[in-house]
Amino acid sequence: MKELFGQRLREQRQNQGLTMEQLAEKANLSTNFIGAIERGLKEPSLSTLISILNALDIPADVLLRDYVGTASHVTDEEICKRLEGLTPIQKKAALDLLDTYIANLPYLTNEE
User: HTH cro/C1-type domain: which residues (predicted)?
Assistant: First the structure.
């Protein structure tokens, strides 16, 4: 589990174009500790996790989604990436589908 968390951390750091040194500085941590987390050798404490999340400006579920069963597995970033390559007509169709889905949520989840 530590390895997967470390991989997610590395992905997020690299997606933002940060070096380990830059992330460490932003999170007030040592570069060695960031490296150990990314390699799955160390687990951050809660306060350290919060520092990392704030430094990366990301929600917790981005790094913790594999650990928490109730966390959303779909992030805004993932939705945006999927929509980027669509034509305007396809985007409108996707929006219409989403509106229809949202309008039918109580029916789909048996909530009334």
Answer: 9-63
